[in-house]
Amino acid sequence: MLSLFGFGPLIYASCLLLNAVAILSEDRFLARIGWGKSSLNDPSSGVSFGAVGQDPESFRSKGINLISSIRTLCRVPLIGVNLVIIIYEILLG
């Protein structure tokens, strides 16, 4: 294991959190709680006629965009990072 007081636990924790966000299913989980990409422009999400849609500066819309970008950009690099961590743990334990 990497050093207890070094960057090892920080690297492990960030890798685990990115893995957790990358595998979230938009259809099965995110849309069910209202955090799907389609809920940003959905007129049936409680917005009345003539009102502006979802505020692009709100925490919810920023969170939806962050989850979407992590799922898009980090999937392939995370495979490499996970392989490096697995090989490191197997060899140096």
TrEMBL record:
GO cellular component entries: COPII-coated ER to Golgi transport vesicle; endoplasmic reticulum membrane; Golgi membrane
KW Membrane (keyword) present: yes
Keywords: Membrane, Protein transport, Transmembrane, Transmembrane helix, Transport
A single GO BP: endoplasmic reticulum to Golgi vesicle-mediated transport
Subcellular compartments: Membrane
Domain of life: Eukaryota
Any Pfam family matching the protein: Yos1
Coiled coil start-end: none
Segments crossing the lipid bilayer: 6-24, 72-91
Record has Nucleus as a keyword: no
Entry similarity comment: Belongs to the YOS1 family.
The protein's name in its UniProt record: Protein transport protein YOS1
